[in-house]
Amino acid sequence: MDLEPSVIFLMTLYLCPAITPAVIEHAASTKKIVGVKSYPKGLTTNSEAGVVSYEEYYPVFAAMEKHDLVLNLHGESPSSETTTILNAEETFLPTLLDLHSRFPKLRIVLEHCTTAAAVEAVRKCGDTVAATITAHHLFLTIDQWADNPHCFCKPVAKLPSDRAALVEAATSGDAKFFLGTDSAPHPREMKIGARNGRTAAGVFTQPYAVQLAAEAFDKVGKLDMLKGFVCDFGRGFYKVREKELEREFGAEAGILLRKGGGEVVVDQIGEKDKIVVPFNAGKEVWSLEWKAGSD
After folding, report:
1. Exposed site from 112, 137, 201, 252, fewest CB < 10 Å?
2. How far apart are CA 208 and CA 116, in angstroms?
3. CA–CA distance, 114 with 137 (Å, rounded to integer)
4. Total domain count, the chain
5. What is the largest CA-CA distance in the chain?
């Protein structure tokens, strides 16, 4: 099947004390910075400068709402006596709903959602709230990452019922849900036997993300919904214009997906201490071919 490309080079900022309303105004003027990514402090990889209190950033969010930048939320709460990695996303959802209530015109993306509760919360919000779903979360449940560090990421995959809700949302044709790979090429030594005793959180899907999504959609007979999820809905939410894509890739550029061609996910990429193990290494996958466009 043919799909249009949905890649264009835009940037986001990292929400931290250095981000002020003045920074937001300047970022918006560049036309190349489309949003700000929020990580809870210390919760995932490279998040030590992340958010402790969202309230202190209300002026920043107001500026983002004014200048129409997107707030990208890593939607988890820090661990506590009542919060673990299994319910960290669900306990964060009241924060999402509160931010949407306070800043109703602020475009918000709940990144890489993993639960049925997150899907429901996003659907309850207005048109300014959307969510991304990763390729790997269309396949994984807790059983896979519990005994395979290459399937461990944050937010962690949850129950089969949560996976089913993600598949339903992704394949529904609802423009609130679109692909966000959250692909993380952690070296194998950081996934297995890390020196600090902690497994790096992240799954590496980037070379095969679209093919994996095609497989998941095909399994439930919704291949006709793939283009919207992969190409159109995210582009629409971020207000990326077709002409920008044509200028970057050519008017007829696209990708061609084929099923059953015998292509297999490689066992590893890189060398020595830079080896990265892709998701579903050694398993058959759809093939993907880029088609050049015409100027």
Report:
1. 252
2. 25
3. 7
4. 1
5. 59
